[in-house]
Request: fold
Amino acid sequence: MNPCLFALLFWQLAFAQRRDEDLMSFVTLPEVRALKFEITHHNRDRASPGYWFVAPYGLIDPETPTRKYLQYQVGPYIYDQDGVLIWAGSPMFDNRNVFDFKAIHNIDDKPHLSLIAQRSFDETVQGSGVILSQHYEVESQTFKLPNTWEFNVHEFKVLDGAKSALACVYQSKMLDMTDVGHPGEERLFLTGGFAELDLATGAPLFEWDSADHLGLHETDRFHTWDEPMGPFGWDSVHMNAVDKNAAGDYIISMRFTDTIYMISGVDGRVMWRLGGPESNFIQDFVFSKQHDVKFVESNGTHHIISFLNNASDEITTDETVSSALFVELDTAASPMTARLIARYNRPDGQLSRLRGNVQLLPNGNVFVGWSEQGYQSEFSPEGEVLMTARFASDRFSTYRAYKSEFTGRPRAPPDLVASVYGTNEDDLTTVFHVSWNGATDVAGWNFYAQAYDGGAPVLIGYVNKADFETMYIAHGFLDWVSVAAIDHEGNVMGTSAVHRTKTPDNWKTAGFVGSSKGLAPMNPSTIYKEGQASGDSLSHSALSDADTKDLVGALSQAYEVVRGLGSLLILILVGSSILGILLAVFWVLRRRRQTPTYRHVPSEESFPMEESHLRDNGSD
Ligand SMILES: *[C@@H]1O[C@H](CO)[C@@H](O)[C@H](O)[C@H]1NC(C)=O
Ligand SMILES: CC(=O)N[C@H]1CO[C@H](CO)[C@@H](O)[C@@H]1O
Reply:
């Protein structure tokens, strides 16, 4: 191949403008580009209830700052089981990487969220372990220990009651090489350990480091002939998970020794090793390069543990497929025994070389995050693959993925954008887009308009929540608009601020050919009022749910097409989309004629906006 052509191709591959069709976009949150999921439900009926908690990142290290405008993509996200976005936390963490993001239910009777927010590239923002309330407010933030260089990104495990949390700790230390046959020699190593941190003060209640308890010979990574490594030293053990049982002992995982260790909570001694060349167990299975070891049950001597056996890493492959393992340990027996009780192989038969996690769900199902490209799967207890999913984008991974029930009640009000369109005063249409970042359990939206600022809100209509963002089209130029989120029992969950409707910068160039007299917003009560001649009103509430769904579906499809366009096809597609919108409008008008009376929505007629503003968006 011509070298110039090759160079050009390489350049294009490496630096080409990334395409964005694997990302979502929203009118109400234009700064957020959430990742899309590709999902296969193999057996939806057996899936456990709950949402997905992922934290996509592009590069695992903090990314270099840029002066270019960037939309928010990486950080904590909640999705439902159909990949519908529930919460985009990327703006809250300013596009920084987040790890180990999950819902936790062990603090009080309210659900919480926990995560590790990575430091910024220039370290002006420190990394931390963070607990958020169900209102997405920071309740607790814990920073790195003074003897370390960052808050390690592998684990942030909040213990029951949230007095303390477990975190991995990496330190750079000069270690004596006697253990590997070089007495009197010292080398710089990155050691691995953990700390139990007091969440009120950030101080360590318990600290443990591999340098004090393990021999250098245990690592399968370091060889005495290796060159010295970087400013931090050789990553000797690669500590990547920690958990604590009721007896007060800790279980930890080290990827570069292929070993799970039990650490005494009394004196830090290694109580036993599982796996690796020095295993203390008679075991009927093998594993390597494991992640996310957790207690499922433990009474001090008998344990059931779960972990991800990725069986491979950056360099070697030990098995042909990665798996989630559940193992029963009897440490009272002599010799101690380790028995495999369940194994869930990666459904696509691939290897997760790095990262991953296993979660036993309350109904016995097993949820596994395989990490790369957000690949995740849910299994029935006996191993049936119920669901597999991955990010539509191959540019992002998530360190871990979790599934959990959660109730999110954001303090911020719903976001609303309304715009008016039309070609003359008779066909003016107000298009609403509404979303509420982080709110779970929203069943639908009430739409309101006022005759003037401070006027009484008039109910325009109701539509079921269709997606993260819901679109609604109302007849007429409506202004001073607002929305109310309605739950499944019909209660108001929260209301937006009153927004002004956006008008075209230039009505004529936007296609308006009527007289300018038609351009003032109308008094909504003249057309959206009970008993009013139906010929002037258009409301979704006059349509059945199914009709509404069809209409909203048709409109938002046309709208999606318009929005997602790239380049040459734009004219053709805009044309057909406009045709689609025209058809939809025509269809609505036709229906309107078929529905002689406007059906009033009784409970919301005189919905007092002032009062609703005072209403809390949820309880503490
Ligand atoms: C722990 O569980 C095992 C198996 O169920 C049981 O045999 C053993 O007695 C228990 N030990 C304690 C201390 O409860
Ligand atoms: C089946 C298999 O290859 N298992 C390997 C898992 O990893 C350990 C440690 O690297 C090996 O000793 C096993 O043979």
Notes: The mean pLDDT is 84. The longest strand covers residues 164-176. The two ends are 66 Å apart (CA to CA). The CA atoms of residues 10 and 16 lie 9 Å apart.
